[in-house]
Amino acid sequence: MGKTQKVKSKSQKTSTGGPKSKPxxxxxxxxxxxxxxxxxxxxxxVDKRLVFDDINGSKTHVTMLGKxxxxxxxxxxxxxxxxxxxxxxxxxxxxxxxxxxxxIHSFLEAALTERLGNTGKMVHAGRSRNDQVALDFRLYxxxxxxxxxxxxxxxxxxxxxxxxxxxxxxxxxYTHLQRAQPITLxxxxxxxxxxxxxxNLRFSDALKRLDECPLGSGALxxxxxxxxRKTTAFALGFRDxxxxxxxxxxxxxxxxxxxxxxxITMVHLSRFCEDVVxxxxxxxxxxxxxxxxxxxxxxxxxxxxxxxxxLIRGKSARTTGNLVTLFTLLKGLPxxxxxxxxxxxxxxxxxxxxxxxxxxxxGGMIKSAQFNIxxxxxxxxxxxxxxxxxxxxxxxxxxxxxxxxxxxxLIVRDCVKAGHKHICALDISELKKYSxxxxxxxxxxxxxxxxxxxxxxxxxxxxxxxxxxxxILRKKNKYE
Length: 480
Ligand code: ARG
Prior knowledge:
By secondary structure, the chain is mainly alpha-helical. Helix content is 58%, strand content 4%.
């Protein structure tokens, strides 16, 4: 067939043109919408990415129709074969998806009818575009989401590789953006990975609930034809046919869940990027982004800007926005299908695309970055980051924690008064004035690396413990 579809039947009038091929629903109406109105309600430019899922679903549906004797078997196999030919022609570029069609379902039915005449018109028996689009969207996500997860796992592995290199690289840990306690860079990066690992689980979890086949639900109330819902559901790789046909066509929980999983992951990336932007500043200077992963300024010749990190942070606004769009879209919808639902795909596709891009960009940026280990370590001295360790030292010697806290706070205040003297510069007789519990052993317990090493509880920053955390995360995020 040629690249254009046949024009509408003569009985339909439009004032200014209208669609190239007759809409599937044209029989009922004396007039069909004029061109711009038709374009307004069409979704083909968005749902064309469902084309191969639609072909897959249609083939399975039509084969079942043949088996059940709803249409002649040889018609069913002709349609299935032609759907393969259409898929092939699309892949080789012999056939284009034309945006004059209302949606991808209309395009494919028109293409079939164009090629097979009346036989092509049999494909839609026992089906509505309502269950068709619910099916296509789910089929698409059943393969797109695992791909997204594999990008996510690939990023987790990049971060774990970097973390592994830095399990003993001391840096300050922050609360309120104030230096708090010594940790390691490896620990910090592993914390990021723990968040991304939960994101990965969120996607897997959403996929479980998505795994029900809407095919056979029709417009909202199934069909009077003897469809075999189990056969089509299993052939398409679903766990089960959807329980309730009305729910199956009205439900977009899976869109909300996946959009939420994307938005949460993007919020994580955005927070990591905020760390990176701070670390790349002259004030911190913890990270040196590769030149190839930085940008310059059109006016200030000296500038090297962390644009990639900033833009990931910025793009998280889109994914949050898409989630809000979807909630808003659904909240007032009466059951079952309403055309409003057509807006669901653009939002989720955008979230998936945005996340996919950001995962790979973030990975590339971190992989090529250099960490300024010396600078991070230096930032651990002089800020009294060992204060909690001193209080806990006193607790171990028998002092109640609140008293130990006050004693240590007093030492800190006096040191600040004395011009930011380091606590370790006080000799033991001076320390003993604050508490008789102080002994010579205190000095070796309050170096930044001793502080880190002593935090060996499960979940802590001690190198041995971080190695264990890395191992667990690696095992959970194996991918080919
Ligand atoms: N393009 C439509 C969508 O994405 C397909 C379903 C149309 N159904 C209908 N009854 N108009 O929702």
